[in-house]
Write a structure and sequence with these properties.
Four copies of one chain form a homotetramer.
Chain A (H helix, E strand, L loop, with lengths): L1 E13 L3 E5 L9 E11 L5 E4 L6 E7 L2 E14 L37 H8 L6 H14 L1 E2 L10 H7 L1 E2 L1 H14 L4 E8 L8 E8 L2 E5 L10 E7 L8 E4 L2 E12 L15 E2 L1
Parallel strand pairs in A: 7-8
Antiparallel strand pairs in A: 1-6, 1-14, 2-5, 2-13, 3-6, 4-5, 9-10, 9-12, 10-11, 11-15
Helix pairs in contact in A: 2-4, 3-4
């Protein structure tokens, strides 16, 4: 078990009545528990909450009148179970028995145009064993072939760009991983969260592939440890899980994040700590 | 009330064991009822069924061994309530009260990159009244500015292409309509179905916008009457509702559709027959 | 006649032996004369010069060893004849008599994918009179429909992006003007220069269309007066006339420009001062 | 020496007065001589000729009134010197001594967006020896990674598409070769011609890289022998050297090509017959 104290503050100048949809609160699932949590809005407006259909993201929505200072301040203490190393037999799921609710994660999406990467993915990864190691090979390829550079891409950048332009940030690495998986007919999805080790602290993006009946986490950036990743949102790609979707007119004036590991509680060194099961 | 007899036949040569996921069967909802229905596979393989989460599409999945002749033959008799002309006060829904489950239909998707059309949509439609007539204006713009030409586009073509290249088929018209709506923060989605009046008969694609608490159908092609449209699939865009998604290796050898109106049963001429409510 | 004192300074940290190809010096033609000029390199390296084939751009090339400080400092005094307002009969040139050397300016180029804008351009401008006023209509459309925003685009941005994304800088405005012209089979090209009135001072980009046997200048940004524009480079698009093309490894450490009008010499107010002839 | 008898026939239905610019006649240079030649138009219209500035392409222009049958029928007998295998020391040219007239062939163009492939090309080919073998490695990579498939691409397809979509025809193979070269700062250009061995006979496209002071031919398709390639057009990319550029309204009704080798005249087997010098 690991415990984290984490939080984020987003501040805005609101120019017209605006509706904010936030996705900054961590999720609760089999893998992570929220020990305590607090969301504070300034001014103290009421907001409504929503758990997305598949239980994968939590949203807070608030309508804000014009003001020079609007802030959402989120803070939580979270307990995380360690991820176990996958067994040797984590196989891709044959399409005739794939749960039909998982199917949409094979389809292309805004930032993951897997349909345009089919030949490339087949050429590069088509002959590999259809299991966990193949998705790992995808991550290795991305790590080896895409240059991580802050500020190098925009909200328009998609996997189709990244696979050729070969530069990006965590979000682009995740999109390309997802696109390659889907091009090979492996369901894959986008995951955001807080993670220890980013400098400066920021939301992190990784991806999950559906193998052997479960979702497995992958991070092609190798920037951090997935043992220190606390999940916030899960979606098809970044279009689904922006930390803030805003209808109206505003300017962001400030943004900050933090995440600290608290005392290690019973974390034992013999636990094999490589990426694995979520949920 | 109108009654339709409709059906489709898809034939394949299957080269390797392949999984087919079909989306050719019509849906049942408040607006349309299935009077009778039959799905016949040749050879007579067993298949499993799936109703997508929001109750919007039905899928049949079948695993097929290599064979020179595999066919799915679908036939149904359907009763359709007329669509009523919308009232004058069909307003867009303010974002602070939009059901959060509807939110994802504002986000960009594979074929509807609404994020890249924001300025254009605002310039073109931003000053119009935020109601039904604005979506109608979008349809008019598409009809006036995009040339309908069979075979002019491919499965790679997206709204971002169409808005500049100005040529496409029904799928492209629907994608552009959706992209414009979303760029204006109006939820919109993709709908496929059978429709009377296409020559040669083919699956048709239209779109829906979420207004005043309901989904309203729109068709920018003006090729057919929405009174004669029987719904099959509903999704974010064409990536979700292909009539056949296939994992494996095959060649399509034949495809045909038909739809005929049966005797009009109690259809009265004083019903104002313009597009409106689905579901 | 107008006289301008102008110049630019570009400074670099050179990390490896690098070759610099500069295009910062003004051109001499029927319309503009260089009264005096000076190019100073620090360190004082020798360079070779090149006048591009059609006599449209001057290049300075210099090979630079690694150094913390490399500077090119250009300064000139230039005399400019006023541009006259075009007569009423500036017609597009029929393709059967268009000089064949001008033909390539109808073809699409890196940033001006006119082939993809054919239908749009025809729809928007196809019915206008085939003369100077049609290119002016193109400029008006761009001015009305594209938002000028510093820093909004990158060196990857092309006319195909701008026509939909509707935001850009002078370079993007020029590219879109060129693309529309070529889509209508009007030869068009890209022009860079110094201009009075930009804040902060920067290289400016405009475009030329070939009409009635001459090249006519157009500027869709309306930011400055073409009477105060001193030409540097002319090419198919920005790919041809970068102010600096660099082979090697360096960092730009500083860049500045200036341009001032000197005493007006004989400039008479009865001269009709709108865009016209170059060369 | 080899001799070829070759020709092409293009037939059109001309709907409105139209101007045709043809580029179907072979070029004469140090490597290939025209022994006899004939261009016949039906109806027998007069046309004007043009040799493009760098002496690289010949154009015939003709203005055609509406007619049900317009044909250009070209036929030539050509003698070709064998291409010699390059010596071992065919080095890339340092940029400080590259002829400035060659520079534009390093810049990106419509179908060769080399600026977007810089990182990929550097990663893939950056460490190879900067000589002939590096361009050969580029060809090998394209051959190994791009699938040749007739009809798979359109006139919109560029190197940026092909490098990811991994499918194309000779034109796409050439564009990608050019884009990779330019991304490595190697001048490269597009070449069209007649070639023995295509089935059905068609215009072929290859590319040239500028090395050690000369242009060297490369063909990544491996479909034919460059010993049997007779050059027609040379340009930045396919935008420059379409076999027919047409202003007006017409329909192509028929197109055919042929090329046959005549008696081998003094061609000796000890000639090392791999790609080499043009011009």
């Amino acid at each position: 078990m690991k415990r984290f104290h984490l939080g984020s503050k987003l501040q805005y100048r609101v120019l017209q009545p605006s509706t904010f949809l936030f996705n900054v609160a961590v999720i609760e699932n089999q893998h992570q528990s929220i020990l305590s949590e607090r969301i504070r809005l300034t001014p103290d407006l009421s907001f409504d909450k929503h758990l997305s259909d598949p239980g994968e993201s939590r949203y807070q929505r608030v309508h804000v009148p014009p003001t020079d200072y609007f802030e959402i301040d989120y803070e939580a203490e979270v307990e995380l179970k360690p991820y176990y190393a996958p067994d040797t037999n984590i196989r891709e799921v044959p399409h005739e028995i794939l749960p039909l609710a998982i199917m949409p994660y094979i389809f292309p999406s805004r930032y993951c145009e897997s349909d345009r990467l089919t030949r490339l993915a087949t050429l590069q990864f088509g002959n590999l064993a259809p299991d966990y190691s193949r998705v790992q090979a995808i991550c290795n390829w991305i790590y080896d072939n895409v240059f991580y550079l802050s500020g190098s891409t925009s909200s328009f950048t998609s996997a189709f760009n990244t696979v050729t332009e070969r530069v990006g940030v965590c979000r682009d690495f995740a999109h390309l991983g997802i696109a390659f998986c889907r091009a090979l007919d492996i369901p894959a999805r986008f995951v955001t969260g807080y993670v220890v080790g980013l400098d400066p602290p920021d939301f992190h993006a990784v991806f999950e592939a559906y193998l052997d009946g479960r979702w497995y986490l992958f991070d092609a950036t190798r920037l951090v440890s997935l043992q220190d990743f606390v999940r916030v949102g899960t979606g098809y790609d970044a279009a689904d899980v922006a930390f803030a979707t805003i209808f109206g007119a505003m300017e962001m004036s400030h943004m900050e994040l933090f995440i600290n590991e608290k005392s290690n509680i019973g974390y034992q060194s013999d636990v094999r700590p490589i990426s694995t099961i979520a949920e």
